Amino acid sequence: MKIKTSELTGWQLAYAAAQHDPMCASLRWEKRDGVVFGVFDDDSKDEGRLTCCFLGDLNVIERLRIRRKTSAEFYAPQELWQQGGPIIERENLGQLPPDGHRFGAWCAFYWTPSQHDLAFDDSVEHKQWGATPLIAAMRCFVAAKLGDEVEVPDELL
Predict the structure, then answer these.
(1) What's phi and psi for 156, nearest 5 deg?
(2) Element (H, E) at 54
(3) CB of 27 within 8 A of CB of 40?
(4) Which residues span the domain enclosing 86?
(5) Edge-to-edge strands of the sheet including 52-55?
(6) How many domains does the chain have?
(7) Tens-of-pLDDT digits for all 157 residues of the chain?
(8) Model's pTM, two decimal places?
């Protein structure tokens, strides 16, 4: 199913970001008991790479239950600074806080010194908005890597 990048939220935004996050490189995605898991086909344990992770719009209790049962890591760069922060830094994403423009949403864009005053200019590529700085940044990252629409496999829905 195709979803507009600007409308991605929750696990679907995490799934899209994972497609180009080196931490999740080479994961095979599958759905088990209503939760999307990313697993490696091999048993390699490369430094800095998740060996297994899961996505889902889950509460803390559900996340802990799955971690204890599977030893998988929860992947949510749109929620967790320790996962989203390195993407923002590596990709050189700029951000502007809400100022009443766009209903108080955060703005994220690929930053270059010449674009400092252009963040609200429509000519800036991959500019995205979100309720939080991480949501805006991950939408921006996904838009740059995958475009304005993202294909989420039907079997994961």
Answers:
(1) -95, -10
(2) strand 52-55
(3) yes
(4) 2-156
(5) 28-32, 35-39, 52-55, 73-74
(6) 1
(7) 999 999 999 999 999 999 999 888 778 888 888 889 888 766 555 555 556 788 888 888 998 998 888 878 899 999 999 999 999 999 999 888 887 666 678 989 887 666 555 555 555 678 899 999 999 999 999 999 999 999 998 888 8
(8) 0.85
